[in-house]
Task: structure prediction
Amino acid sequence: MSLCLICNNEYKPFISFGPQPIANGFIKMEDLGNEYFFDMQVGHCEVCNMVQLVDQPDREQMFNSNYAFFSSTSTYMAKHFQQFAETIKSTYLQNDNPFVVEMGSNDGIMLQNFKNWNIRHLGVEPSSNVADVARSKGINTIVEFFDEEVAKNIISEYGKADAFMTANVMCHIPYIHSIAKGIKTLLSDNGVLCFEDPYMGDIMEKASYDQIYDEHVFFFSAMSVKYLFEMHGMELIDAAHQTTHGGSMRYTLAHKGAYNVSKSVEDLIEKEKSIGLNNSKNYAELKTRIEKSKTDLYELLSSLKSQGKKVVGYGATSKSTTILNYCNIGPDLIEFISDTTPIKQGKLTPGMHIPVKEYNDFIASDADYTVLFAWNHKTEIMEKESKYKGKWITHVPFVQVFE
Ligand code: JHZ
Ligand code: SAH
Ligand code: ZN
Result:
């Protein structure tokens, strides 16, 4: 039995993925030999409905001066964050001289908009290499892990915040009660917290188990988010589904009683109950679908190998680390993975050691099959690769070949 990080009740993990490396721990050939692995298990708490990792590596092992994920590698995501910023500005920043804070601002993909509008802003970003990119764009950034203490320091230097935004970060933080307390003190009376993360409803529907890796300690639903923030005097006032990252949810919260609660919250919670996000049976069934996906993918790639086909991968995503290690797919089955991120190129993927190469190598390879590891960017990538003559492989929502 494990203890829930939110409500401290006991829960039993429903799946184990075995030993997994740091998802973004791309390694140089010469550094092979002492990679870190942790036992990756996931459980659902029946009291607060939070789905969570049982263990997670220390934060500095994941987020440091060598962090390999740069947000601005997707032009679609840049557009998404521009719209996100516009929504915040037009809905919640009507007062004089507003101030916004972003947690996990990475290379500045969201805050660049506020900077361009001359709105007072602050990014809190512990991975110094990505924070440096944001700073070079003129975005005000501190290199820190946000928590309750940092929130107090921000108040003494800048005053309270009108909006606290964060995307694909909240679900990364096991000390989430400290985050919630920090946000609660940092927000002005009418201030809002607006955050988005991959949605448990989409993971359940698509069996997109590759959302599970070291960095993602929580898999949120409206039920679990509401429970968590009510513990801190905050209210879930809106929830809006997003297509990004394979299906995400944007949650808006405020001090209790400060705003009317949108009907969308009640509707979403009803829907979550109807699809069984509060029911352990559904997680057991998800496990069965994940196991089938594993067998299907391994068998497909093995059979292509025996036919002598050339198979490569597209996008050395964090998600791919789970697929490769869980399904036992190495360089014998996938020759290389192409990725546009310079820091990943010339290195090996964590655990399974598939070479990561530049985009030009993908074009030159003329591969028969390409595994789309960045399946969440499918629209963007299909537009870009309309000339590719080979076939694509995806595992979402089930293992299949498409053209
Ligand atoms: P992408 C990361 O997940 C980690 P990942 C993190 N934990 C999280 O939650 C989300 O981001 C937000 C490359 N690429 O976005 C760039 C191409 O090569 O699916 C990236 O390395 N060509 C914070 O790593 C990778 O693919 C392209 O045309 O799963 C995409 O990574 C495009 C569009 C991307 O996130
Ligand atoms: N918001 C961006 C980046 C997501 S990557 C996007 O959606 O694309 C997750 C980021 O969270 C990393 O850059 C990591 O360094 C940062 N992070 C992790 N823990 C954090 C904490 N406690 N406070 C602030 N940022 C944190
Ligand atoms: Zn719980």
In short: The longest helix spans residues 280-306. The chain has a mean pLDDT of 98. The pocket of S-adenosyl-L-homocysteine (ligand 2) is lined by residues 63, 67, 69, 71, 103-104, 106, 109, 124-127, 130, 145-146, 167-169, 172-173 (CB under 6 Å). DSSP finds 13 helices and 19 strands in the chain.
